[in-house]
Amino acid sequence: NGFEFGGIRLEQYTNQKLHQYIYRRGSSGNGSDLSPTSRITDITKTFDNKILRWFNNNLNENANLEIDDISFLKDLRECLVGDKDIIISELSLKIKSFAKDDKGIVTLLINGKYVGEYPIFKKLFIKKSISDFYNKYSSISISEDKVCSVCRKDNKTVYGFVSTFNSYSLNKIGFVSGFDRSLAWKNYPVCHECALILEKGKKYLQEFLDYRLYGTNYYIIPKILIPNKNRESYEIFDILEKFKEETEGNIKIEKGHQRLLSHDEKEITAILAEQKNYLNFNFLFYDEGENRNEFKILLYIRGIYPSRLKKLFESKNYVDKKFIFKNSNINFTFGSIKYFFYILEFLEISNNIFTNKKIDYHLLIKNIVNRIREEFIKGNSTKLSTFLGLQLLDYLNHLNILERFEGGIKMNEEKYVEEKNIDIFKENDLDIEEKIEYLFSQFSPFFNQPAKKAVFLEGALTRLLLDVQRIERNIKIDQSLPFWSKLQDLKLDKKIVTGLLPQIQNKFEEYNKNYYVELESIISRYMIMAGDDWKISKDEISFYFVIGMNLKSMFKSKKKETN
Length: 563
Description:
563 residues; elongated
């Protein structure tokens, strides 16, 4: 004889009752959800637009329901409409007891049972859940006794509008087989079971395998290569799920957790690198657009083994410990690539690093120097951009993937760095020659020509002169220093650099502060050794020059400090 309102009960949400709540968001933001269970926003709007509208929609659309089901739903609606004011009032009071960040759902309990325990609600829920698989664009696309393109099984009922991701769409008639949407099942036939599996797979990806890198989303998708009957092969999923739950729950990651892709703690690559090669990983970078109404694959990197990730971390650790970067607290991540390149170029270079493909050295130098010049022209410090650029090149060289680079890797370099890693910024017992030779040995592939060495040292000497000039003239802004304009916005070449050395020496003499005669002599020596045929580009000249400018503290005169 109908229903009556029995009150509001507040209970803690739990995943164990998902099959009782049967919640799924509707396709329209303002429309009803797929059951009379909804997330609470504004309680009046939630009650009207979600709960009551669900009953109205399903009673209007389902004239073929059993008489008892229609009567059941009508009686429930009548109760909800009749007691609407008191229901909203009591709901509002309950919501006031929520803590500041608490969220909730509202659902129905009928005779002590949740909606998911009633066959009629489950039936309508399933019907709504799968209706988009075959009923869309004002068309019905379904066929019987066909082969499913996913499971490849025959004698299946297949649907034509299964689009798990929005990369596949039939919104334009030209994409449809025969220009008839009812025949869309011929394009991409998917059976009922596979459609639901695809939806569940998508939800799993979004919940546990979804990450973000410098504004770009990506999935890390493991692939088991050697499955076995026990759970050992599938433990990676437990690892991924646990890591996601901990990071999303803001649990602090243990100290020493390394990052390769970014400085974000929510990065799992170090853990993946510890796994064995019975699996590999696919990295899928994607863009969903501003309104999340499309799914565009930006990059798909396939088959990356844990051993490759381990190699990438080994190279990272190698460059991080060098005294220049250690002293400046600069740790290598893929953020160094993003610093110099736009997103698509960044992804392309990242792909080459993961897959061990060559990267053009001159392309890298050009972008690095362009960024340094931007900072230089603005009068900003070039130290960060210079060191990030050098570290990136050193990292890629250690991986042996620099193309058109004459330096190459040195097989004994890493051993030398481990045995004799000192900080020449703080080492006072070394003379200038020893400091220079140590630096060149640390980066021997990049200082493999006398011209590079001369340009680097002249950059340091130039910066030392600018420091003297600033003090002598009491000028704080570098761009206002008289000698600054001679650097040509760092668009340097052989002629400019060779012409600068005598001018620098003359300026030191004018100020009566030429503490760097020994350094000037070493530069002259390398200039003579370089001869007239410099086999380095203009961008390289500017790059080595600005490296020297940012390492000028190596050459600070002890005589100056005592005067």
